[in-house]
Amino acid sequence: RMMLLVLLFGLVVVSGVVLLVVKLLLRSRRLLDNMTYKDKKLQYLPWKFPLGDFLDQKKHYVATTAEYCRRITRETGAWVFNYVLEPMPMIVDDRLLRMFFSTNDLLLGRDNSAFPIIARVIGNGIINTDGEEWRKQHRLFSQLFTPQAVKDYRPIFVDSLNSLLFPQLDRAIEKGGGEACVDIFRLLKTLTIAVTFDVLFSKEGDEEVRATFIDNFSKVINQMNNLIHNIPFFDKLFWFHPDVRELNDAIKAVDDAAKVMLERRKKLVEEDNDFDPCCLIDLMLTTKDSVTGEIMAENLIIDNIRTMVFAGTDTTATAMTWTLGHLSRTKHREFMKNVVDEVDSLTNLDLDGDEYGVPLEESHLFASLNEAMRLTSPISGAPIRVAKKDMNMGGLSLPKGSNFGVCFFLYHRLEHLWENALSFSPSRFLGRYRSLSETSTDAKFIPFSFGRRNCIGKYFAYEEMLSVLPRLLQRYEFVEEDRELGVKLNLPMIVPDDGKLMMTIRRR
Known about the structure:
With 508 residues, this protein is of the alpha+beta class. Helices cover 50% and strands 11% of the residues. The protein contains 19 helices and 16 strands. It has helices spanning 2-33, 59-71, 94-101, 116-122, 131-144, 154-175, 184-201, 207-223, 227-230, 234-237, 242-270, 280-286, 298-312, 314-327, 333-344, 348-352, 364-375, 408-411, 458-475, and strands at 36-37, 40-41, 43-44, 56-57, 78-83, 86-91, 108-110, 180-183, 385-387, 391-393, 396-398, 403-404, 476-478, 487-490, 493-496, 502-507. The strands form 5 sheets. A 4-stranded antiparallel β-sheet has the order 2-1-11-10. A hairpin with a 2-residue loop joins strand 5 (78-83) and strand 6. The longest helix has 32 residues, at 2-33.
């Protein structure tokens, strides 16, 4: 009798799964039939993931992107691939992107169902919300991350360089007899996570709590591409798996450390009147919503702490790594010389002043940084939007319930948007922007996404990179090498092949 019950239960479960799949496939067909551009069905380009390489793609990702770039033109408008048994259009025209990504944000939802670990890691932080809740958080954070406000964090960027990164590089060079081969990607990740912690909690934080937070968040990041966390319900079905336990323990440790630091800062602000204008937690505890006059709830502060570490550490480190990697290639010798000559002309006053020492439209470093983010976007694509009603703009029609997005890596390599799109050519950015804010209005260059829901920390990231890179290049020679830069998709990141970039450096 027990065996019969087990068989019946199994039959019910299998039947339920089959019915769910059939329902999803029928819904997929209905959506696909109603997705059109200029009254023609959208082009379907299935992304064929190689077996065993679903989330951690190397040459396959670049090759498939190159194939699609050859087949996509401006007249394509958008192409479709499968996303959790649903068709998802990916926009490939800057005019359409401007329309859809700048539309009323209340018409667009969020969908991270394909990668549930993202929702687990960032909770209800600003990246993962929509509707009025997103507007509330955006009103608060938009006050804290203006181009002018983020300049206050420069001393933290410089101090972290002097106390953390420079000593490591100098010791390696001394040990190597004048030069050292280092994993610059790993070192820059260590720097950016330390910077983010200090910006969030102030440098006066408890060292033991700091170490616990950083160590466990590194474990969380290392688990991001583990397939068991990225298939819905798998982490619950396989709760006993060591990787699931490690992730659960790491997230809890991160939360516990964040709560300790939050309580400490709250006491300092409210009881001791010790407010630190360069401590983001202090600002979140005191900054009021410009409409409601409310401050952010503490549970949302915790979620946004995780969001900022998740979104603001590896991304910035990756962008700087790609910049140094491209510039150090032998065939890019001229670009590196232009950048080094520029940073050598800068004094501490130029670097610490109200503006970067060279006008941005004339800066070879700024141009090289942007070109590196164009050719090798740190993030693979924008968080997925969901149409909450039928949408028809610029000839592109999407039915209600459609997921849509844009693949940054592919978008930035399209010839109808960028001439000689596969070439590293920083000169294309010279004279393009006179200020950081102008980068937000360019629908062709979107490493931080586009529209009202673009990256809230964009100006913070630029300020950090324009503080770190000049000082690195003033102090060290990055030996040029005649090599190709290996690229792999490490969802949601585009990172160097094998997750590291070895570079030879010398003191100048």
